[in-house]
C-alpha cells in the first residue's frame, strides 16, 4: 500500500534522474537508455490511478496537462507548434467581461444582438464557432487575430482578458520529457562535472573555437526548443518570445555543452540597449537560460538553471556564458542586478545566490557593501560552517554586482540610471518638437536630427533602417547635435548608417588560420574576427568596394584565399560590431 501512495513521487524522481542522464550521460548506452525511457514515459503516467496522475499536472512531463495564462505571443506560438493540443480552461474563468470585450471585436454586426441577449454564454458561443471549423476553441480564437497589421491591438485585448489555458502534453514533442534540439553526436561524462575555473576572468577571455550563425530554419528550431523549455515550466521571457530566427548564434563550449544566443526581431528592439536571450544546452537538452542587455562594453545578465540540472556544473556554465558574450560583443564588464541574488527574490536570497556570483569574481558596487562582503567572505574562510544570516544577505543583495575584466576602464561604464535619464530627455525633446500627434512630433524630431548631423535624405534606407533611426532620434536630439563639432556629427552619421556600411565576411584560406586571424585584426575596417567551422568570419565596416580592396590586399600579401563571401550585416550584428573591441 505504501508503495502505491509514493508511486507518483518516485516516478517524478525517476523522470528527473533520466533527464539529468540524458543531458550528462556517463556512457552512450546510458544516454540511449535514458532517451528511450523518457520517450515512453507518458505510458507510465497513464498506468497510474487518476489521483496519482493529477500530481503531475503542471509538471511539463509528457502525458500531463499544463494550466497557465500565457501571454498573447506565447499563445500565438502554441497555435503554430501545438495545434489541437490547447483549449480554454473555462472552469478557471470567473468573470468573462474582458473576454467578452475581445469577442465583440470579432463579431459581425448581425451577431451582436444574439451575443448580448443573455441566451448564450461566451463559452457556448466560442465552442459553437470552433466546432463548425473543426478546431479547438483556443485555436479558433487565435486564428481570428492573425492580422499582423492589428497585432498590437489584439495583443492588448488578449493579455487584458488573461485567458486561462490547458495545454495537453499527451504525445507532444515539446514536453520536458522530449524537448531536445537534435545534435550530431553525444558527449559523455566519464570524468564527471567541470568545476569553477581557477582563473575565471582568464577563462572568460579564452578564444572560442567556433561561433556559428545558424540558418533561419535551424534558428527557428532552436527558438522552438527555447520557447517550449519555458512554457512547460510556467515561464516565458521577452528574449524568446521575440527572438529573431535570422539572428541565432550557437557556440560549442566543449563536453557536449553549447550556448545559443538570440537577437530580437527588428520591431521589438530597444533604442539604446541590445537585448538578447540565451539558452544553455547539453547534448541538445535545454538545461538553463537567461537574458541580457548589451550596451557598449557592458552586459547586464544573469543565469537560471532548470531544477533537474542544478546538481551539474552551474559555475562552469555561467563562466562559459560570459565567455560567449565576450567573444560576440567584446564586453569587458558584466552586471548582475540584485534580483539575481536576493533583491525581492526570497528563493535566491535563501539559497545564498550572492556567494555564487561573488566566488566567480563579482563584487558589490558601493564601497560599504563591498567591505561587508569581504568581511563575510573572510569569516567563511576561517569557519567553513559559517553562513551569513538573512539580514546580512539582504544588505549584500541591496545593489548591483560587477565583474570587470582586466581590460575594463572606469570610463566605459554607462550607469543604468542614465538609460532612464535618456528616456526622460527624449520625451522632453518630443514635447518641444510640436506636432498634432506624438507621431508627428517624432517625425519632426527625426527630420531635425537628420538635418543637424548632415544627413541629406533617408530615401535609400530600408523601412527597418528608418524605424531604427526614428527610434533613436529623440535620444540624439536631447544631446543637441547642432552644437556638436563636425567630427562628432560625422561619427553619429556613421553609427546611424552602420546598417548600410557593415558586412559580415566569411573567409577561408589554405594557409595558417591562426596567422591569418592575426593578420586580419591589423587591417583597416576589420572590427572583429571569429572562427566559424573551418573558416573565419569577420565584421567589416565597409561596402563591396572596400571588401574587394581587402581581398586584393590579402592576396597581394601572399594569402591563399579559397573562399571570400561577404554579406550585409543584420542589425544585431551591426550593434555588436559597433560596440565591441577586437576578439583575439
Keyword list:
disordered N terminus; about 575 residues; single chain; Aminopeptidase; alpha+beta; ten-stranded mixed beta sheet; four-stranded antiparallel beta sheet
Uncertain runs are 1-6, 574-584
Number of domains: 4
Tally the beta strands: 17
Mean pLDDT: 90
Structural class: alpha+beta
Quick rundown:
The chain is an alpha+beta fold. It contains 26 helices and 17 strands. Helix content is about 45%, strand content about 15%.
Task: Give structural notes.
By secondary structure, this protein is α+β, with helices and mostly antiparallel strands. The protein has 4 domains: 65-168, no CATH class; 200-409, Aminopeptidase (3-Layer(aba) Sandwich), CATH 3.40.630.30; 417-496, no CATH class; 499-579, Alpha-Beta Plaits (2-Layer Sandwich). It is 46% helix and 17% strand. It is built from 26 helices and 17 strands. The strands form 3 sheets. Strands 4, 5, 6, 7, 8, 9, 10, 11, 12 and 13 form a 10-stranded mixed sheet that branches. A hairpin with a 2-residue loop joins β15 and β16 (535-541). It is globular. The chain starts with a helix and ends in a 5-residue tail after the last helix. Mean pLDDT is 90; it is low at 1-6 and 574-584.
